[in-house]
Amino acid sequence: MLRTKLDPTYDDLPEQRYHFPRAYLRQVDAARGDRIVYYERRRPSGDLMKTGGRQAYFATARIVDIIPDPSKPDHFYALIEDFLPFDHAVPIQRHGPLF
């Protein structure tokens, strides 16, 4: 699962790339070649007073490669292919039936 926000602090473009710090390199590398699910967080920033975001799964894709970020040391890009948005976002929690 890759998490993103409406207003990401990283240089994410979910259809093409996922930007992340070295702390997650091992986990992202383990998913190389695999399909992943994108998750949109509830808050668009670290500001606890702001709301937004669907807190839902919204797409799937495949991680095809990982490259270093040439402008930011200790950060990387996971290169994405086969991005497929869901017809409907799938909430992380639900109250009652989805259908």
Keywords:
about 100 residues, mainly beta, five-stranded mixed β-sheet
Give an overview of the whole structure.
The longest helix has 6 residues, at 25-30. Strands 1-3-4-5-2 form a five-stranded mixed beta sheet. Helices cover 6% and strands 44% of the residues. It has 99 residues and is mainly beta. The protein has one helix spanning 25-30, and strands spanning 2-4, 17-21, 35-40, 56-68, 75-91. It is globular, with a radius of gyration of 14 Å. It is built from one helix and five strands.
- Supply the number of helical segments: 1
Whole-angstrom Rg: 14 Å
> In percent, how much strand structure appears in the residues?
35-45%
Low-confidence stretches: none
What is the number of strand segments?
Answer: 5
Topology, please?
Layout: E1 2-4, E2 17-21, H1 25-30, E3 35-40, E4 56-68, E5 75-91
Parallel strand pairs: 1-3
Antiparallel strand pairs: 2-5, 3-4, 4-5
Summarize the structure.
Helices cover 6% and strands 44% of the residues. It has one helix and five strands.
